[in-house]
Amino acid sequence: MNPARRRAIYERFRAASPEPRGELEYATTFELLVAVILSAQATDKSVNRATRPLYQKANTPQALLKLGVKGLEQFIKSIGLYRTKAKNIIATCQLLLEQHDGEVPRDREALEALPGVGRKTANVVLNIAFGEPTIAVDTHIFRIANRTGLAPGRDPRAVEQGLLKFTPDEFKLHAHHWLILHGRYVCIARSPRCGECLIRDLCEFRGKTAEDPAKAGLKKA
Question: Disulfide check for 145: which of 117, 130, 151, 179 has CB 3.0–4.6 Å away?
Fold first, then answer.
C-alpha cells in the first residue's frame, strides 16, 4: 500500500471519530492497568461487568492487596483465566507498592516487569494513560493490518513495527483505537461488513463482501 492511500485511510477514520475512546471503563491509571490485564482473552463488556463492583470495593494497590487473591477471584470469576489473572494482579499490586510508590510507571521496561503485563498491555497503558504514540496489536488490529494491506506482518510484533513505520505521526496517538474499533464492529473476522466500511475503496482486501445495493444507489444518485 502506498503512503497516499494509508494517509487517506487515517484521514477518514479521523473525520469519522476525531477523539476515539476504548470501551474499558476506568477512572484512574491503576484501574486502567487492572482492566487491561483482565481483558486478555476476554471482551471489554465482560471486564466492565466485573470491574464495576470491584472498583467500588477496591481500586488501589493497597485495597486490592487487602482483598487478596481469593477475594479478587470472587469479583472476576466470570472472566476467562480468572485465577491466573487474580494472582498476577495481586503480585503487580505488591510490586507497584514496593518499587513505584503505588503508582503505575510511565516506562515500558518497568511496565513489562509487572506480572501479567506483556508488550500489548504496556502499549495500551502507555497510549491511553500517558499519551504515548504506541500501537497495541491485538487480534483485531492484526487482522485489519494484514487484510487491508495497511501493514502486513506474520506476527503481532511485525505488524506493530509496520504500523509504527508507515503510520504518519499525526495519526499515531489514535491509530490503536481507530483500528481496534473498526475491527470489532465493521471489519470482523467472518463476513466483514464491507458494505458499511468507510475505507472500502481504499482497502486492498480481495475478498470484499458485496456492497449494500441501497447505499450504492444513494452514492450514484
Answer: 151
